[in-house]
């Protein structure tokens, strides 16, 4: 039987497996970019800008963080308001309602995420990253009509994902996100995060200023299909029924 101290150490291994450098974050512990803990995000933000990037582990230097934050601030002001009510896109900075903004893109950057898996697969990393972003989307509550996007960077595993809210997903589709991330993969693998994020922000900005993907109304589609099936069955029955005149 193993000595108690060694047994206790082995029991701790799963909990420590996600800790390689510094803190292994959970989404609950990660700073709120608009809350009281935002000061942990490390950014020199001008007084006329909101905070759009949270890098508590200091993966980027202050100058890079400041420039990326300025890019994201400009993206917000230079993309169209996608919400049905224009008031949902108002900055509320003056008596006239403030300048209108469009999409709100933010960056969550960290060294490590807390995991219980010692050697995670690529799928494990994707599932954990998406779960982290899903929690942050609710916690940060950026955008007022599903017009927010989170760019998530997990530095230790060179993992980056783009997580759009429901409306933003129509402008930056799954295929477009894959193409954007594929283009910067070499930069990410080389830890050139500032260059990679600059490219990603530029690509997202172009997509957000384009046309949204047209969604098919599933209710209407179901009705059309049902009517089509009914018409087809009617024609088949009519064509295969015996001619009444032939019976006499």
UniProtKB/TrEMBL annotation:
Biological process, per Gene Ontology: positive regulation of locomotion; positive regulation of neuromuscular synaptic transmission; positive regulation of synaptic transmission, cholinergic
Q: Which Gene3D superfamilies match?
A: 3.10.310.50
A Gene Ontology cellular-component term? neuromuscular junction
GO MF annotation terms: acetylcholine receptor activator activity
State the source organism's domain of life. Answer: Eukaryota
Q: What Pfam families does this protein's entry cite?
A: MOLO1
- What are the transmembrane regions? none
Protein name, as recorded = Molo-1
- Where does this protein come from, organism-wise? Pristionchus pacificus
The opening ranks of the lineage are: Eukaryota, Metazoa, Ecdysozoa, Nematoda, Chromadorea
